[in-house]
Amino acid sequence: MAALDSIGSAFCLFFFSFTALFSLFSVLVFIIRLRPWCNCHVCRSFLTSSWSKDFDNLCDWYTHLLRKSPTGTIHLHVLGNIITADPENVEHILKTKFHNYPKGKPFTTILGDLLGRGIFNVDGNAWLFQRKMASLELGSVSVRSYALEIVSSEIQSRLIPLLASLAEDRNSAVDLQDLFRRFSFDNICKFSFGLDPGCLQLSLPISDFAVAFDTASKLSAERAMTSSPIVWKIKRFFNIGSERQLRDAVKMVDSLAKSMIEQRREMGNFSTQKDLLSRFMANIDDDKYLRDIVVSFLLAGRDTIASGLTSLFYLLSQHPEVKRAILEELDRVMGRSGSESRSWAASFEQMREMHYLHAVIYETMRLYPPIQFDSKYCQEDDVLPDGTFVPSGTRVTYHQYAMGRMERVWGSDCLEFKPERWLKNGLFTPECPFKYPVFQGGERVCLGKELALLEMKSVAVALVRRFDIQVSEPDRTPRFAPGLTATVRGGLPVRIQERKG
Q1: Does residue 488 have a pLDDT over 70?
Q2: Hey, what's the torsion of the CAs at 285, 289, 295, 299, to 10 degrees?
Q3: Is 446 annotated as a binding residue?
Q4: Rounded to an integer, what distance in angstroms lies between the CA atom of residue 310 and that of residue 481?
Q5: CA dist 252 to 174, 181, 245, 299, 466, Å?
Q6: What is the rounded distance in angstroms from the CA atom of residue 6 to the CA atom of residue 465?
Q7: How confident is the model over 230-257, as pLDDT tens digits?
Q8: Which helix (H) or strand (E) holds 251?
Q9: Rounded distance, CA 410 to CA 196, Å?
Q10: 326: left (phi over 0), alpha (psi -120 to 50) or beta
Q11: Which amino acid positions bind heme, per UniProt (predicted)?
């Protein structure tokens, strides 16, 4: 046994050394091969960049490069990636030449272990089938009512009592981002599976499922950041390191999804159940396919909501005048009353009248979109409206984060948090979706848009009316961790007080 252990240790040492050397060699060869034909200032900047010294986030560095570009488009040859902040290019990619810019195999391979054949990870007929089915379900009045019921219950029974208990200790800070992630995870699990993980209970329990889901999302995103796909593919083949962690996390997600599907099968009468899984089961018999679809909605409905809410309350803490304007609108729409009897929940009809709050949420996501950029892959040679040539197989990225900070797109006040830019005569007026592609646009426009806005408004109404939430370090600029969605590194520490009057 000792000899076998020694052999095993020797093999592991050899393999890790070989993998490291091979990875380094691959990168060096790639760069050496690159130099003769790519000497543009953007790629030189990328190869020699110390962006972290000059910018808080990688997205800020991309914004800087896109601002300097005469067309608002750059070509990072070193990454095989064209990045644009031009609304006309975005419309070309998402609408005019939609079928020439699918997700593409590189993307679906990276997220394949977690999302499988779910709607956010497929193209063609598989995407079209899920799109039509999801559109019918998510667009129905009954589903929206069910979603509002879940969100209102989570706010009333968990979020408000938890924040009220935290408000009693004015000197202690709490991570608001963590609370919003717990809140949105509870909601999306109830909505998707009919499962309540109880992440927002007063004791703030650790959910094994939430941890596994977070781990799988994080490690899947990190695959895209490796120097070459061969690195993570070798690790996956030998089941080592981060790929072993990813496999274990996905197994736990699979196990829970499988058990929930089996329970639903035993219950039968899918049409009488309100959760998304039951609705899909009425039309799909393939359990693996069901798992992929529901896990995709889990990913989209959890992290994007938490990200949007975190940015919203960060900005409200920085702009008390906006908070006061929201309170005035809420009192006007919902009625003014004492704090003891004040209602924390708004109806569908009342939320439709909250034009200023709607503008605040849109302005928040203009500056801090939950998904900071999105990529497609060009199938056939193409030319973008700004004249950029796109060779077949090239990754093409439109950068929502940068677009919100471009003077040529939003004017000289583009860096200001200014909800009024969305209002005309006091009424919310949307912009072109390709100027504001936070919810994508064209055929892939976000199906959960209205549900997401419903959830964010419900939380904003309840928390702004009941609490005064202040960021503990108001001068600190948000720094985002790498991932599929915008997550503030280190969280958002805040102090909470009950609002008086």
Answers
A1: yes
A2: -130
A3: yes
A4: 14
A5: 29, 19, 11, 15, 38
A6: 65
A7: 889 999 999 999 999 999 999 999 998 8
A8: helix 241-267
A9: 42
A10: alpha
A11: 446
Rounded CA-CA distance 457/309 in Å is: 9
The ranges assigned to domains in the chain are 18-498
Within 87-175, where are the H helices?
A: 87-91, 105-110, 112-115, 124-138, 141-154, 160-167
303 and 485 Cβ atoms separated by less than 8 Å: yes
Using the predicted structure, report yes or no on whether residue 433 has a pLDDT greater than 70: yes
DSSP 461-495: HHHHHHEEEEESSTTPPP-EESSSS-EETT--EEE
- The amino acid at 407: E
Side chain identity at 80, as an amino acid letter?
A: G
Q: Is the dihedral of CA 408, 410, 413, 416 positive or negative?
A: negative
% of the chain with per-residue pLDDT over 90: 57
Taking the model in full, what pTM does it have?
0.88
Q: What's the pLDDT tens digit per position in 36-65?
A: 345 565 555 554 555 667 788 989 999 999
At which residue do the structure tokens 């499922």 appear?
209
Fold assignment, 18-498: Cytochrome p450 (1.10.630)
Q: Residue 269, by phi and psi: left (phi above 0), alpha (psi -120 to 50) or beta?
A: left
Q: In degrees, to the nearest 5, what angle opens at C-alpha 70 toward C-alphas 65 and 71?
A: 90
The count of other CB atoms within 10 Å of the CB of residue 461 is 24
Helix (H) / strand (E) element for 397: namely strand 395-398
Helix, strand, or coil here: 438?
Answer: helix
Give the pLDDT confidence of 86-132 residue by residue, as tens digits. 999 999 999 999 999 999 888 889 889 999 988 888 898 888 888 88
C-alpha 150/C-alpha 148 separation (Å) is 5
Q: How far is CA 110 from CA 118, 210, 230, 262, 363, in A?
A: 13, 21, 11, 28, 32
- Kindly report, residue by residue over 369-404, the tens digit of the pLDDT: 999 999 999 999 999 999 999 999 999 999 999 999
Buried b (16+ CB within 10 A) or exposed e, 162-177: bbeebbeeeeebbbbb
Contact between 45 and 65 under an 8 Å Cβ cutoff? The reply is yes
